[in-house]
Design goal:
single chain, alpha+beta, four-stranded antiparallel beta sheet, 3 helices, globular
Length: 162
């Protein structure tokens, strides 16, 4: 019993001292609407810390004083750090909004006029400037086929073929 308590305390302490940093990006091609639907899930505190550092001003995303300004900050940051190409062409992503879910923030984007996807290239370096050990997990769904990958700072590029 004492050994298992010690092991649990050791693992808990290790996790506290050495936290992990991860973001998840989900990209779904909606063939019917000819859109790419993009959702990014980040830890809220990591996102606020990064925006604070970049903008040199306090950022509060849970209950912002100016919601439009908060949305603009999130949109600009993600657009700078998440770029997509479909079949070699740069894709413009439009910010839809964000929502807070517990300790996370979900950021939503959409790219219009994407009729087909044969090759999807993703440049994702979200939160890399704040955390050297940041990991990005990317999930894609195209033509009903799901593919995923993991990239870790400084690696930022991923490619999927369908």
């Amino acid at each position: 019993m004492a050994a298992s308590v010690y092991k649990w305390l050791s693992l808990s302490f290790f996790a506290f001292v050495h936290p992990f940093y991860v973001s998840v990006t989900e990209i779904n091609h909606n063939e019917k609407d000819k859109t790419l639907e993009i959702a990014c899930k980040l830890f809220l505190d990591d996102t606020e810390k990064t925006l604070n550092k970049q903008l040199k001003t306090p950022v509060e995303l849970t209950k912002p004083k100016d919601p439009k300004q908060a949305q603009a900050m999130v949109s600009e940051y993600i657009k700078k750090h998440l770029q997509l190409k479909v079949d070699g062409k740069n894709i413009v992503i439009d910010f839809v909004g964000y929502e807070i879910e517990g300790a996370s923030i979900w950021c939503y984007f959409q790219a219009n006029n994407v009729a087909a996807v044969n090759k999807l290239s993703v440049m994702d370096n979200i939160l890399y400037e704040t955390y050297e050990n940041q990991i990005s997990i990317i999930h894609t769904t195209v033509k009903g086929e799901k593919k995923s990958t993991r990239i870790a700072n400084p690696e930022k590029d991923a490619s999927f073929e369908f």
